[in-house]
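Sanity check

After download, print the first record. It should look like this:
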Amino acid sequence: MRRPRFSPIPRLAAVLVLVSGLLGVAGSAAQAAGTGPCDIYGSAGTPCVAAHSTTRALFGSYNGPLYQVTRASDRATHDVGLLAAGGYANAADHDAFCNGTTCSITKIYDQTARHNDLTVSPAGTAGPADYPADASEIAVSAGGHKVYGIWISPQHGYRRRAASGTAVNGQPEGMYMVASGTHVGSDCCFDYGNAEIEVADTGNGHMDAVSIATTCYFAPCTGSGPWVEADLENGMFQGANGSNTANLGNNSTYVTALLKNNGQTTYALKGGNSQSGALTTWWNGALPNRGGYMPMHQEGSIILGTGGDNSNRNRGTFFEGVMTSGYPTDAADNAVQANIVAAGYSGQTNVPNGPRGTVTGPGGKCVDVAADDTGVNAAGVQLWDCQTYASDQHWQHYADNTLRTLGRCLDINGNGTANNTQVELYDCNNVGGQKWVQQADGSLRNPQSGRCLDSPNGNTGNGTRLQIYDCNGAAAQKFAVNGGGVTTAPGGKCVDVAGDDNGGNTTAVQLWDCQSYAVDQHWFHQSNGALRTLGRCLDVNGNGTANNTPVELYDCNGVGGQVWQQQADGSLRNPQSGRCLDSPNGNTGNGTRLQIYDCNGAAGQKFALS
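Expected structure tokens:
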């Protein structure tokens, strides 16, 4: 069976890795199978008072929800849980709920009994109210299972005000987070940890949060980071009074960033590669003597992705994190790092992934939404330098021919049809002004108006506001949807690659229920007529031309069996053979292997490119 895409059965190999990773830790820190980071800290006398993750359970016995998603289409909410107690997130459940629309993460559940759940941060003295993160922005793997992280862009973040059990007024505590070491920035602040109750800077020592950023707050710093730092309010500290040239930074794909503070005299900073190896201690010594830090004055709120006053101008990717009561031992920290490594994180963390991709336009610029990833209704859509980390430059082409980013659609202002009408971002509402079809010449055509997405006068400067205009084949109308679009097929199915997004040579191409999250159902129509997904092309087996020859995925090589032309009747014709893509006998069942056959205009040959 091809779907669901991710098995609900935990892999034995992952369990064995977990056991072996923990058995290597000496003394009481060694734990049995099924142990999570909070079990380790609890056994060491420093229990977790908060535990947040969208990827896995942080207690061996936890079997509750990890996070809540809210669907854009109807505002319904859904809790995403685990494949099994103590295991990994059920991404298939997430995908099924969000299929055909977009979702945001509106709550991150605390896995302790204290219910220190994180919700979207309110406005503070240094930043307006935040937006929830796109729920499907960053998919990675943990323990061999697909899971989702939290992609934080500027003006996105979460908070729990006046949390239960967190340190206050100089009490000791520890915390760590697993985050990206490649999706980072230098502004303030991508933090996880203890912050003010009021969303304001209330003075030195009123925060105690771990950060990973390229912020060199106290020069000199060594290298260009990113560094694991302590946000103690009014400073990102790497050691003693700020600067610490011994801190060499952590830039691995996944970083374990750890901070612990006895609240009176001492704090420690550690960093490590979450995929392998041990922690490095960057600082273990005195708290700053700048005033207000000895003792600390923590207030006990919890933040994720922002500063204590809601400074929300940085970016990052979060996977898991905990906070403890008490100052953890080094042995416990080491055991937790071994547990994180055994969790088996893998995959890229610095580019929004899945079926979304950039839309590149004139001058090699990207189609971009004004105002840095906030994506409000009527926000201008423009050209801008391509930025791999910009969420609002990554668009997904849906089966209804919409192009979506930040939970909204590329829209023609006022649903207009006239030349020079500007485009914008707006709530998806199924109007004709939100439909975009990729043409073979590289243009994006709006069927309602009959006009194409256009850069006025061929301008390519940053901030050029886009519009619609008569389709004319000019360079000003070349917009490549690099994430591709679905190809709808007989029976309302989609053209799909067998094997769950792995796409090796000769993999069968078939019909399957449309899944907006499936990368291998999104095809990029190249200017040479090729249809590409997963880095390979839709190919006629053996470059054949005979009726009933099956189609497959294969390395793009420019042969005639990889050229497909959309016909006026909705068929896809292969010019070399003169035959059309075909579902045998008009079958519409999942798994129906596609072929070529004499073009006949039948329903079994209706394949519409989006």
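If your output differs, re-run the checksum step. Summary of this record's structure: The domain at 359-481 is CATH 2.80.10.50 (Trefoil (Acidic Fibroblast Growth Factor, subunit A)).
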